[in-house]
Specification:
This protein is mainly alpha-helical and 431 residues long. Helix content is 77%, strand content 0%. The protein contains 18 helices and no strands. The longest helix is centred in the first third of the chain and has 35 residues.
Length: 431
């Protein structure tokens, strides 16, 4: 529920750059996303591409588990303007980033020990382990860039997320360009690690500009009140990670590598919707150039935001659906036959776009019980759907599971938004 939300800050968040300039940067980010995907699938066979993209699931899926509770708490703090122990937002972000980074680094160390043991005990797995080693090493960097990226998203700086993605996609393109014809998969994996390191650095720079704080403030220990509030969101964070990455984990383990490649091509291409929607939305729910009104939005504004998000998400997704065949044809066989998978994943992005304002409203008021039920039920539905269908339908089952989860979470968020009072009063038991 911490995803796709906007800040409630009395200080205007209007950017100094022009709208046209921002749109061009977003279009360039979308083009790099598609180009990097195209380069990988043309340099590697479908099976090798699937093995490579499984590494993405390792790095990004595990990072979602590591940063979940911190990310959700930080979004609530930024959006709801919750004072925490008289600490500035920038200082709190740095303190939580430090703890989250230690957590991710510890898991990275454990995985490295396991990898070293497997390398000795099972020499036949050496090639696979060499391919996934860079993804394991990338875990702390991916966790940091994703955590700071979600904080920027919560603070209406969604362009920063796109700029951080430049580094990974440019690194992938550079790796493909420099690779020899007989290059191993590990070479491409190391390119991903290099891009992740640069992306983390970019995210740190953007976060410090958006939420300034001194190093002395960041180095202070986190107060007990904040730690207790963060720990209270542990299971919501786990459920959110399962919602986003559970179907992909099942697909990676249970389906042939080629199915993973088909899903990854469709998913990375559909993700351009998330790059572009905030720049095209000119209504009161616009996330990038205009701050939302302070406090919980009245019912009339909530309805206006919902209608606006529906209109602009539909205006972007419908043309992409119409030209789905032409888009997938760019990647060649066997990816050009995945129109249904692509359509389902575009629908996931559409659902997330429509539910943005409602998710924001839920985060502002924050009812742990209702939010936990929404995210948990969506995660269970997504994981079960994929587990039951992946053996027969492969990538299609994972895409359908992701759509079911997105529809449930965003639908329940919309129901919550309009079940509150006319002025958006929080429930009596809002922690």
């Amino acid at each position: 529920m911490a995803e796709t939300v906007a800040v409630r800050d009395p200080t205007p968040t209007s950017a100094t750059h022009s709208w046209v300039g921002e749109l061009l940067l977003r279009v360039l980010g979308a083009a790099l996303q598609v180009a990097a995907t195209w380069a990988v699938v043309h340099a590697l066979t479908p099976d090798d591409s699937g093995v490579y993209f499984r590494g993405f699931v390792i790095a990004l899926g595990l990072s979602a588990l590591m940063r979940g509770k911190y990310e959700i708490y930080m979004a609530h703090h930024i959006i709801g303007r919750r004072a925490a122990c008289s600490v500035s937002t920038g200082a709190l972000l740095g303190q939580l980033a430090r703890r989250m980074l230690l957590r991710a680094s510890f898991l990275c160390g454990v995985l490295l020990v396991v990898t070293a043991d497997l390398d000795i005990q099972a020499p036949q797995l050496q090639a696979v382990l060499q391919t996934y080693l860079p993804f394991v090493l990338a875990l702390p960097f991916v966790s940091l860039s994703s955590f700071l990226g979600e904080a920027l998203r919560a603070g209406n700086r969604t362009l920063g997320v796109v700029l951080a993605a430049y580094a990974v996609n440019l690194s992938i393109l550079l790796g493909v360009a420099l690779a020899r014809p007989d290059a191993s998969l590990a070479f491409y994996s190391w390119a991903f690690l290099c891009g992740s390191v640069v992306a983390a650095g970019v995210a740190v720079i953007l976060a410090r500009r958006a939420f300034p704080a001194t190093w002395a403030e960041v180095s202070e220990p986190v107060c007990r009140e904040v730690l207790e509030a963060v720990d209270a969101r542990e299971w919501i964070g786990v459920a959110r990670a399962a919602l986003l990455w559970g179907p992909l984990c099942i697909l990676s383990i249970s389906a042939p590598a080629a199915q993973m490649a088909k899903y990854a091509v469709a998913a990375r291409t559909a993700l351009i919707v998330d790059f572009l929607v905030p720049a095209l939305n000119l209504t009161d729910s616009r996330e990038t150039l205009r701050a939302a009104p302070a406090g919980a939005a009245p019912r009339r504004l909530r309805l206006s935001q919902l209608v606006g998000a529906f209109g602009y998400s539909s205006a972007l997704v419908l043309p992409l659906l119409i030209f789905a065949s032409s888009t997938l044809a760019l990647f060649g066989e066997p990816y050009d036959s995945q129109q249904m998978v692509y359509a389902l994943l575009l629908s996931v992005q559409w659902a997330n776009g429509v539910g943005r304002a409602a998710v924001r409203h839920a985060v502002v008021l924050w009812d742990t019980r209702r939010i936990g039920a929404a995210v948990g039920s969506g995660a269970v539905a997504a994981v079960l759907t994929c587990a039951l269908g992946v053996g027969r339908y492969g990538a299609l089952a994972a895409a359908a599971a992701s759509l079911i989860g997105a529809l449930m979470v965003n639908g329940l968020a919309i129901v919550m938004a309009f079940s509150d009072g006319p002025a958006g009063e929080p429930p009596s038991e809002s922690p």
